[in-house]
Amino acid sequence: MLARAACAAGLWVHVGRVNSFKRMRYAAAAMDADSADGTLLTNGPDKHLPSVLRWTWQLLLNDAPALIDPEDLTGAWDNGRYDLAPRRMVQAAPRTPALAPEPVQLTLI
């Protein structure tokens, strides 16, 4: 397997399209990946972040290989980088229509 060969060579292994616990477990255990990503958090971070954190804790508590160190999940794990509070929709100011330019009449000679 290419990922195992890269890991044995000391290269960083990254797995994409990891959007479920099953894929995260596979990336960590079977592929020996160092990192993974997916669009799950992009499409709904407020909704899906608790699931991703739960999957990570589940791997750590079962002594399975994980893609993160336990120390990264304690305390202020994001160092304040992420604001996951629900956002209030801001109403845009009403736009005034632009004035139409004065018509210009051209004369052909």
Question: Could you walk me through the main structural features you see in this protein, from its secondary elements to its overall organization?
Answer:
The chain is mostly helical and 109 residues long. It is 34% helix and 4% strand. The chain is built from 4 helices and 2 strands; from the N terminus they run H-E-H-E-H-H. The chain has a two-stranded parallel ribbon. The model has no long low-confidence stretch (mean pLDDT 76).
Structure summary:
The chain has helices at residues 2-8, 21-29, 40-43, 45-61, and strands at 14-15, 35-36. It has 109 residues and is mainly alpha-helical.
Q: What is the percent of helical residues?
A: 25-40%
Biggest sheet overview: 2 strands, parallel
Return the structural class: mainly alpha
Order of helices and strands: HEHEHH
Distinct helical segment count: 4
How many angstroms separate the termini?
80 Å
Trace the largest sheet across and list its strands. Answer: 1-2
Would you identify the regions where 5 or more consecutive residues have pLDDT less than 50?
A: none
Radius of gyration: 25 Å
Question: In what range is the share of β-strand residues?
Answer: under 5%
Shape, please? elongated
Q: How would you state the average pLDDT, rounded? A: 76
**Total beta strands:** 2
Tags for this model:
109 residues, mainly alpha, two-stranded parallel ribbon
